[in-house]
Structure formats: structure tokens, C-alpha cells
Amino acid sequence: MGAAGAGARRPRTDKQRNRAHILEVAEEFFSERGITGSLDAIAKQAGVGPGTLYRHFPNREALLAALLQTRDEELVSRRDAIRREEADSGIALARWLEAMGEWLTAFDGLPEPLRAALSEETSPLAITCQGFITTTDEFLHAAQRDGAAHPWVRGRDLFLTVLATAWVRSAALADESSPQALHALMQSGWMTPRTERGPLT
Amino acid sequence: MGAAGAGARRPRTDKQRNRAHILEVAEEFFSERGITGSLDAIAKQAGVGPGTLYRHFPNREALLAALLQTRDEELVSRRDAIRREEADSGIALARWLEAMGEWLTAFDGLPEPLRAALSEETSPLAITCQGFITTTDEFLHAAQRDGAAHPWVRGRDLFLTVLATAWVRSAALADESSPQALHALMQSGWMTPRTERGPLT
Amino acid sequence: MGAAGAGARRPRTDKQRNRAHILEVAEEFFSERGITGSLDAIAKQAGVGPGTLYRHFPNREALLAALLQTRDEELVSRRDAIRREEADSGIALARWLEAMGEWLTAFDGLPEPLRAALSEETSPLAITCQGFITTTDEFLHAAQRDGAAHPWVRGRDLFLTVLATAWVRSAALADESSPQALHALMQSGWMTPRTERGPLT
Amino acid sequence: MGAAGAGARRPRTDKQRNRAHILEVAEEFFSERGITGSLDAIAKQAGVGPGTLYRHFPNREALLAALLQTRDEELVSRRDAIRREEADSGIALARWLEAMGEWLTAFDGLPEPLRAALSEETSPLAITCQGFITTTDEFLHAAQRDGAAHPWVRGRDLFLTVLATAWVRSAALADESSPQALHALMQSGWMTPRTERGPLT
DNA sequence: GATGAATGAGGGTTCATTCAT
DNA sequence: GATGAATGAACCCTCATTCAT
């Protein structure tokens, strides 16, 4: 017992190995069963004691944060790619929001702790969220400068909307078209622009 | 012990009394502590055994559904009022969405089980949701007929959006302006209408 | 699983049965392994779930208190017997202290929680201790009235001394004569009375 | 990490430095939080790994023994002072017992492991205790020779009594007068000397 | 020697749910 | 029907101790 899977019994720099292995298992676990599963169970499946898991990640949030950090890099790449490739700031924003949305649906139940983290300054997840909001703000400002986005929109709100959309999506799976529909709603709203209809009076 | 607490000594029509009393207590409980509290605690506070609670409501969802049904009536009234008072179908839809949004924030954590219910046909909550979607569709169709809403929007998607907004709101408390911002986003989207900017190319 | 040992699967007034059975097991457990053993282990050995044990005794102290209450009756009998039989108030006190001392060595480690309880008013054990102190005071007052006990002694201090003696006894087992020696010390002190030696100066 | 924290950067005589530093930290730790605290925490606070701590002190008892050895010297000084200054062997004994009592309350919880050690020959703490008992015997013999102490008292019993008194004192804090009362009890017992009351018959 | 990661049994506790009474 | 005792898996977490590096 206690082996890190890959062969010998605790070979060399096993801290990193263990950490990585735990993350792997946790990723799988969270993906399959959602992020509410038992940490002890993850430890067991990873072949380590609960203490080991606890050493690496003092609580569920820390584990999640570490897990996301890995995924973060992918998102950063996408961000850079969008910046590089996309001249139209509106489309760039759209693509970024889409990328974020995909990222947020990585695990079932992920939006929940992120939302919770938003209310607590100290959480490691809060930092992640802040990063997202900042990036969103960048894309948004560019779009606003170009007149592609409403001036009254804030990055934080966009993030929240994407988050909420990601959250709701888990349920709407049965309905294939929901994701796009929600995306469209977020983009254009349900209301037709007044200009098309004449003044409201 | 075992009496219905609130004065009387449990005469004949126990069952109905109990049911009503449990609902009352549950309402208070859920309102104050969110819907994740212990059912045992509710039973205890209602002065009944957990078995009794379970007889009336086989699980948390059933209890919640019963609870919401009561609240439903309020929402129905609002719906009727809107229908009666509001000539502009767009504004009517807007008001309806707002009413629904308020309703969905009645208890902390309420959106979660509703979302879950959407994936399961059999859930008692699913029926409630269906009712909402239907009503939303009615308002929406009217609005679409009048050109006040985009023709591609579906009632289900609007409901999901309102639900998601209600969900995200619990976290955004610190930020006072979030609710409105999200509302505006849902209504108008972040993107400026193309007509204002010229063709997309 | 889950049966209370004695045959059928949860026969009649099993609450009392279970309670009694748990107490029995706990008594055995505490006697053999001291009072620091795992509560879960006791539950398991009693054939009940941890929750059941918890329901009956919300914590270790409560369990202990219940256990002692049973023993209490024995002590009360002894107290009454002493009162009945013993004319010499000094000897009566001595016998009571001895009885208490024996009672306090019922389980290994028992003095510890009792000592701890003395600092906390709310503890169920504290009440037990108070009872002892009161009784000690009664015997002591009689002895003092008869000139058999020093007037400056207080019941509380005598109790503490007996408690301390019981505590220290667990270690001194190897030394057979320690209990008596300590008893004698408590009774007569180590110092010879000044009257035998003349004034101190 | 892993440096000895307190300034220097761990030159050659690591081992001794480490040992000393661990002892320092442990002393502080035990004084403040009692001797039941986590050894890991001590190691961490001392800036060494738990392995290092364990190398020096294979278990909690060993650490404690080492710690007490340092304090021992103080007690030895007091012993010598008493010997030097005190002509009256009875008062000398009393002073020694008092000194020992103070020494035993150095850390919260100290009496416990000492008592335990008394049952095990091999314990490092047992040696410390033996020293105390020996010294007590010396004072006691002198007092007995002078008729100041009962001839039936043994040093070991006196030590046990002082130990027990130290133990019980932690609980009796609320009661300011307990320490003195217990001291008096140990000295004179609760029973009035028979000579004052006539023969027992 | 020193390190500190790993161990893993064990701690107390909660609670949705069942079922004998 | 109502009751509430029983269930027992699950939760998170701690820490003395070992041992590979």
C-alpha cells in the first residue's frame, strides 16, 4: 500500500510524483462525480493516506485550486491566441467568453465553489477568479473602445454571467441547443434593440 | 414530546395539521439557513419525528416542491396582474422575468435543486419548472409577436437565464450593482446591435 | 448487524436495552483499557452504529457520567451503611474516604476527567463530584464536632486528596504498600504532632 | 527552510545546536500549551524536521526527560540551599517538599508522564523520579532521626503525595486556598492526633 | 545527520433514511 | 399514522512515527 501507482514503491522525487498523481486522480474523480466527492476517497484511490493528501492540499478548495491552475495554462494560451489572431475586438471578447465558459465546465459542479470564492477575499480560488475578471476587462475595454460592446457593461458582470451559464449548463444537457442559446442571449439579450422598433415612449 | 408544539394537543386531523405545520417550519428554516439544512432539525423543530416528516415528504426535494407550491400562488397572482395591467408585451415579459427572479431567490440555495430537477423528468420540482417555462413562453411569444423580443429566443432559455442569475446572485452580494447589471445583460446583451455599427462584413 | 446481542433483532423496548448494553460494554472497555479508548470501538463492540452511541451519550463525558451513576448507587449504599453502623465519627469519615477512594479507582484513568470536570460548572461529572464533596462535608463536620478532625480541613480538600491519591495509585501498583501508606499520610500527615516534640520554638 | 531559525545559518556543530534549540523551543511550548501539544509543531517551530527531533529524542518522554534535566539543576540548587541553611530537619523536609511541588507544576500536565514513568523501570523519566525520591529520603531520614517525621513514612510515598498534589492543583485553580490546604493535609493529616483525644480504645 | 514526505489508524461528529413499535 | 431509535457510511482532520532521500 502507499505506492504511487507507477511501479516501484516511492521512487525518487516522489513528492512531485505523488502530488501529480493525486491531481490526476482528483481530476478524474471530480470530472466523473463532481467536486463534492470525498477527499478521503480520492486519497484512497490515489493510493496515499489521507494525511498525504492533506499535506499537499490542506482542504478541498486548495486541491481544486491546484487542479485549476493546471487548466489555467490552457486558458492563458487561448487568451494569447485570441489576442494574436483576432483583430475585431468584439469577436475577440466573444471568443474569450466562450473559452472561459468551456473552462468553467471542466468539472461538474465547478461553478459552485468559484461563486462561493467570490465572496471571500482570502480563498485561493478567488485569485483565479480575479485573474479571469481582469482578462475579461481587458477584452471588454477594447471592445467598448471600438463601440462593439455596451459601455455600461463591466468585466465582473460578464464573468458572472459566463459563470452562471456554465452552472446552468450542467442541467440543460438534455437540451442540445441550450448552450448556444444562452450564449446568444448573453450576447444580444432577449430584447430587440429599440432602434428597430422605434422609441419606447 | 411528539406534540405539534404550537399550542394544540393534536386532535383528530393530525395528518393535515402536521403537514401544514411542517411546511411552516420548513419555510422558516429554509429562509433562514438555506435549503441545505438538516431535515432532522426541521422535524424536531416542528415537533414531529423524522419518520413523520418522511411520510409526508419522502425526500428533501418533495418537501421543497410542496413548499414552493405555496409560493407558487403568489407568483401566479403576479403573473395575472402583469397580464392584466401591462399592455406592452415587452415590458410584460420583463416584469415577468423579474418576478420569477425574485421568486427564485426566496431561499438561499434554491436554484440548485431546480437546476437538478430539470434533468430529471420525474422530479416534483420539474413540474414546477415546467409551469414557469410555459408561462415564460406565453409572455415571450406575445413579445415576439410584437417584435419586442428576438424571434430566436425560447422560453426555456429565458428561464434558465433567470435561474442562473438567481444562482449567481448569492455570491455577488458584496457588489450591490450586480443584480441590475445581470438583468440588463440578459435583456440587451453585451454586444451593441450591429445596426449601430454597420454590417459585420 | 445492529442487533443488541441478546437474540432477536431489536426486540422490544430496545432503547433501554441498547443503552444498557452500551453501558455494559463501555464498562468493560473502560475497565480494561482505561477511559481513553475509542468511542467508535465501544459502539462497534456493542454492535451498534456510532450514531446510536452518540444519540444516547453525546460525548465521552456523558457516557462516563452515565456509567458512574450506576456505580453511584453502590457508593450511596456504602455511605448509608457507614452512617448506620459507625458511631465514631472519625472512623466513619475514614471509612467514607476509603469507600470513595475505591470508587475512584473503578476505571483506569477515571480521576483525570473528574479533575477536569471540577473546573467546569456545566459538566455532568461536576455534579457527581459535588455530591461527593457534600457527603464528605457531612462526615467531616461530624468528625470536627467530635474533635476527631482538624477544624481547618474542608470537605473539598479531602475530596481532592482522595482523588489525587486515586490518581497516583494507578502508577504505584508495583508497590503494594503504597495505597495504605498514602492513606495513612492523608490521615496523619508526615509530621509528628508538635505536642509530642514540644513547641516549634 | 530547515535552518535553525534563530539567526545563525547552521555551521558545523549542528547536532548540539539543534538539540539545544529544540529544547528551548520545547520548553516554551510546553510551558504555554502543556505537554500534550504536537511534537510536529515543536519541530516546526524549532525549524527542524520531525525526523531530526526524533533523532535527538526518540519520543515525547525522552524530550521531556531532557527538558527536566535542565530544570533539575535548579532543584539541586534549592536542595543544597536548604541543606546549608536549614538546621531544623522537619522544616528542611517541608521546604524540600514545597520545592519539589513547585518544580512539578512547571508545565501543565507534567505529573501525568511522571506517574506513568514510575511503573516502568526503563523510562528516562523514572531516573529523574528516582533522584527525587532519594533526596526526599535523605531529608526524611534526618527528620525521622530528629523525631520530626513519623517513622512509618517513606520517601517514595511523600514523593507520590507531592506528585498527586501537583496533579490535582491544575483543577483546583478556581479555589485559591486549595494548594495550601492540601499542603497542610499532607503535613498534618485530617485526623487530630490521638494524644489530644485520649486513647482509641 | 538531517530532512520532511508519507503513513494510516483514529478522533469526534452528522444526517438521510429505514423500520420496529 | 406517528414515532423516534437505529443505522452506518461519510465527513474532515490530526499526529506520532517511519524511512527514503
Can you describe what's shown?
The structure is a homotetramer of 201-residue chains. Helix content of chain A is 68%, strand content 0%. Chain A has helices spanning 14-33, 39-46, 50-56, 60-85, 89-104, 111-118, 124-145, 155-169, 178-188, 194-197. Chain A is elongated and about 60 Å long. The model of chain A is unreliable at 1-9 and 196-201 (pLDDT under 50). Chains in contact: A-B, C-D. The interface between A and B is large, with 49 and 48 residues. Chain A binds a DNA duplex (21 and 21 nucleotides) through residues 1-2, 9-15, 18, 38-41, 48-52, 54-56, 58-60.
Most extensive protein-chain contact, per-chain counts = A-B, 49 and 48 residues
Q: How can the largest sheet of chain A be summarized?
A: none
Cα separation of the termini of chain A: 75 Å
Helix segment count of chain A? 10
Question: So what's the oligomer here?
Answer: homotetramer
Order of helical and strand elements of chain A: HHHHHHHHHH
CATH top-level class of the largest domain in chain A: Mainly Alpha
Uncertain segments of chain A of ≥5 residues (pLDDT<50)?
A: 1-9, 196-201
Give the proportion of residues in helices of chain A.
Answer: 55-70%
Considering the protein shown, what is the CATH homologous superfamily of the largest domain in chain A? Tetracycline Repressor, domain 2
Q: Which fold name fills CATH's third level, the topology of the largest domain in chain A?
A: Tetracycline Repressor, domain 2
What's the shape of chain A?
Answer: elongated
Number of strands of chain A: 0
Give me the secondary-structure category of chain A.
Answer: mainly alpha
Total domain units of chain A: 2
Under the CATH scheme, the architecture of the largest domain in chain A is: Orthogonal Bundle
Overall pLDDT metric of chain A: 84
| Content of β-strand of chain A | under 5%
Task: Report the radius of gyration of chain A as a whole number of Å.
Answer: 20 Å
